[in-house]
Specification:
- By secondary structure, the chain is an alpha+beta fold.
- The chain is built from three helices and six strands.
- A hairpin with a 2-residue loop joins strand 3 and strand 4.
């Protein structure tokens, strides 16, 4: 499995950010081909308290090839292009393979 993670720093207007994100951006993301599941959370916390990110998104793809195909599709490109419409401070984006170990 390949995880695609987007971490958004605090934004100047968090209420506007949240409204746009939920009402417009997430519906676009749901259309990315190959996206098996998605999750997001506002106001994540660390064990010591407030985290440096205000929103974290996780998307699951079968593998790196599926992630690449999904993000380079017209739907994936629309999602990427949409970020400037609501995030004044750019996000940090990472992806990685999930390592599985036998019990």
């Amino acid at each position: 499995m390949q995880k695609f993670v987007v971490m958004y720093p605090r934004q100047p207007d968090m209420e506007a950010f949240k409204a746009y994100y939920v009402e417009k951006h997430i519906p676009l993301a749901r259309k990315i081909p190959g996206l098996q599941a998605l999750r997001y959370s506002f106001d994540p916390q660390t064990l010591a308290g407030e985290a440096q990110f205000a929103c974290i998104f996780e998307g699951d793809f079968a593998d790196a090839q599926a992630l690449g195909a999904g993000m380079s599709s017209p739907e994936g490109e629309r999602v990427a292009a949409d970020v400037v419409n609501f995030a004044r401070v750019p996000p940090l984006i990472v992806h990685y393979s999930i390592a599985e170990e036998a019990g």
